[in-house]
């Protein structure tokens, strides 16, 4: 398999594929198409020192979201489950973007900045995108290959959980050769993350309501702990 100019050998076992995919995802972050493009866009804005004084905070935010944040969000559900060290390059770019929007010094603490801009941190944005994909699949509107990985939980007998839109947990298929890689797979993480959501989010009757409640939930988890 070739990805972004890198060659990967995939064996026929699930664990081998999972390990290789984890390596590919890590390469995409650290290699790093998304990071490089986002960093270049951010640098092009921040280094144009004559532009920033002419822009309002709102105009700068719109510009950064169009040129930088969109790159951070591009296909970011593929990064679900990667360790914090792999996500850190993307988070550093978002931090720099927040400082640029608010016109603050390079080493300003960023947590209050992200909160004031109402920006979810990168890890939460990955979580958000993954759950939106699951919502589509659980409601029959997502791609078939994702629907195949997301199955509703069906209890052996009538239980209250049958009406809470829980998903069946995926099996690891025995002792995995690469446990960390396997447990990072979409089919494993998606049901786990979904079932951890509050019931009012899982049972939202529209995508708009689901997205609004999910963002509020993730915002509280990351900024109000």
Automatic annotation (TrEMBL):
It comes from the Eukaryota. This is Uncharacterized protein.
């Amino acid at each position: 398999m070739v990805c972004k100019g890198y060659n990967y050998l995939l064996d026929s076992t699930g664990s081998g594929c999972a390990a290789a995919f984890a390596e590919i995802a890590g390469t995409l972050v650290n290699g790093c198409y998304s990071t490089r493009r986002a960093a270049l866009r951010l640098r092009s804005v921040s280094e144009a020192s004559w532009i920033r004084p002419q822009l309002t905070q709102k105009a700068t935010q719109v510009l950064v979201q169009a040129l930088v944040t969109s790159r951070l969000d591009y296909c970011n559900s593929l990064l679900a489950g990667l360790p914090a060290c792999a996500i850190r390059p993307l988070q550093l770019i978002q931090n720099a973007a927040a400082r640029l929007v608010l016109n603050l010094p390079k080493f300003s603490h960023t947590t209050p900045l992200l909160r004031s801009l109402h920006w979810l941190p990168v890890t939460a944005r990955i979580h958000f995108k993954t759950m939106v994909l699951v919502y589509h699949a659980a409601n029959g509107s997502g791609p078939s290959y994702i629907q195949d990985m997301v199955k509703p939980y069906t209890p052996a007998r009538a239980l209250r959980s049958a009406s809470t839109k829980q998903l069946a947990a995926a099996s690891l298929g025995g002792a995995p050769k690469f446990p960390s890689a396997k447990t990072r797979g979409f089919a494993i993480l998606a049901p786990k993350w979904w079932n951890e959501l509050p019931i009012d989010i899982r049972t939202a009757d529209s995508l708009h309501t689901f997205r609004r409640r999910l963002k509020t939930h993730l915002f509280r988890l990351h900024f109000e702990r």
